[in-house]
Write a structure and sequence with these properties.
With 444 residues, the protein is mainly α. It is built from 13 helices and 5 strands. InterPro entries: 6-hairpin_glycosidase_sf (IPR008928), Glyco_hydro_76 (IPR005198), MUG_Protein (IPR053169).
Length: 444
């Protein structure tokens, strides 16, 4: 995302792994067009100024807190608070912060409906899509359908469309995601760093982790949803091969922000922070690649990255997920949502592992945020270990994700009493001992 270009001052010093722009080429196959042509997107509605909220959290009007005797109630309370940020006129959760944050919030909404079977928010989700598919004002040449001036912004919305497709098989959502994949693919070049997508479409100066991780996850997800596909899988595999050789995955099994390039056109790890979302999206991409191929190598790598996060002093403190910006209280609105993205993808990885090794970590973070980072009306702040000060849509959308993955997302028990969750984790671990005697480490 665009903020990634201006965070050079916030460095986490790690060893470099250099790569040459003259190294092995990763040639991607041609794009296969969507099966159903999409109509021209509508003209974007003008936003009513009086509908724009500029303050959130403790300054919002009082809202009755939902009872929290079950995990479902806890999740619904966090979701209701997230939706209190929604601007009906604009059809998004924020009109003052980054546009992509609403794409993540839409994925949260779709995830809730997918995991619980509810369709209570379909009208809101469709209204959001109807409003946001128009060309964005700052990049009308994209032509709408989420084609923005940065490949990562497009990727977040495309993944939301994939999740919307999962709800009922509506082909339009899948076709939008395929259109977005084609748009992102245009910015894969061999001229810099021997492959990879540029994140910044206007300047084309930066190949970073998140744009390429999102593309990899999107391509792998499309492969599993387009019957008979081989092209998307080939693209996802080629992107991973390039990514693994690029140097962004460092010697500590953590992903730095992106690549820098010397005057001699040698690309190398830029040593910028190991943000939690960069660790998370690569977990999701590797998990989808495993589902598509059953290649155990993807799971082995994903587990190494996940374990590195849990062992990292900068990313996990006293068992609680953190980001490098938190110590100085310097997280911007983009960075405030990063941890929730990690939690979603860690839960996805956990779901294909027979021993469920990350369930306790996810539970601990959900409990910590609920008890220490929540106010009386179910708003959350950025530091899950607390204390609560104020909330934004990024903070709320981020903290909501551990709520949904806590038992509901991992175990599929939408009405499980909270007091029983730790017992469930122990029971599942005990059952997995026998299961692992008969199954491989990764399971479909």
């Amino acid at each position: 995302m665009r903020s990634s270009l201006v965070v050079a001052a916030n460095t986490t010093v790690l060893l470099l792994l250099a790569c040459s722009s003259h190294g092995a080429a990763h040639i991607l196959p041609p794009y296969t067009p969507a099966l159903h042509p999409l109509p021209e997107p509508p003209t974007r509605l003008r936003r009513a100024h009086h509908d724009i909220d500029t303050q959130h959290g403790s300054s919002l009007p009082p809202r009755a807190s939902v009872g929290h005797n079950t995990t479902a109630a806890r999740t619904e309370a966090a979701l209701a608070a997230m939706n209190s940020f929604y601007n009906q006129t604009a059809g998004q959760w924020t009109v003052t912060d980054a546009w992509w944050l609403s794409g993540v919030a839409l994925t949260n909404l779709a995830d809730y409906m997918y995991k619980t079977g509810s369709r209570a928010f379909m009208a809101q989700a469709q209204h959001t899509i109807d409003q946001q598919i128009a060309p964005v004002p700052w990049w009308p040449q994209g032509g709408g359908y989420f084609r923005a001036d940065s490949t990562d912004d497009t990727g977040w919305w495309a993944l939301a469309m994939v999740r919307m497709f999962d709800l009922g098989g509506n082909q339009t959502y899948l076709d939008i995601a395929r259109l977005d994949e084609a748009y992102m693919y245009q910015y894969w070049t061999m001229s810099d760093c021997a492959g990879g997508l540029f994140v910044d479409i206007r300047a084309r100066t930066y190949k970073n982790a998140i744009a390429n991780e999102l593309y990899m996850l999107l391509a792998a997800s499309l492969h599993r949803r387009v019957p008979g596909d081989t092209a998307y899988l080939a693209k996802a595999v080629a992107t991973w091969d390039w990514f693994a050789a690029s140097g962004m995955l460092n010697s500590q099994n953590l992903v730095n922000d992106g690549l820098a390039e010397t005057a001699e056109e040698v690309c190398f790890n830029n040593q910028l922070p190991t943000w939690s979302y960069n660790q998370g999206v690569i977990l999701g991409a590797l998990t989808e690649l495993y589902r598509a191929t059953q290649n155990q190598t993807y799971i082995t790598t994903a587990r190494a990255i996940a374990d590195a996060v849990l062992a990292s002093a900068s990313l996990t403190q006293n068992g609680t997920l953190t980001d490098p910006c938190e110590a100085a209280d310097a997280c911007n609105n983009d960075q405030q949502i990063f941890k929730g993205i990690f939690a979603r993808n860690l839960a996805d990885l956990n779901g294909v592992l027979s021993d469920g090794p990350y369930a306790a970590y996810l539970q601990r973070n959900a409990d910590t945020a609920f008890r220490r980072d929540r106010n009386a009306t179910d708003f959350y702040d950025v530091r899950w270990a607390g204390p609560f000060r104020n909330s934004t849509i990024a903070k709320q959308a981020s903290a909501y994700i551990p709520c949904i993955v806590y038992c509901v997302y991992i175990f599929g028990m939408s009405s499980l009493p909270i007091v029983s969750c730790s017992v469930v984790v122990v029971m599942i671990r005990m059952m997995s001992i026998e299961k692992t005697r008969q199954t491989p480490t990764a399971a479909t």
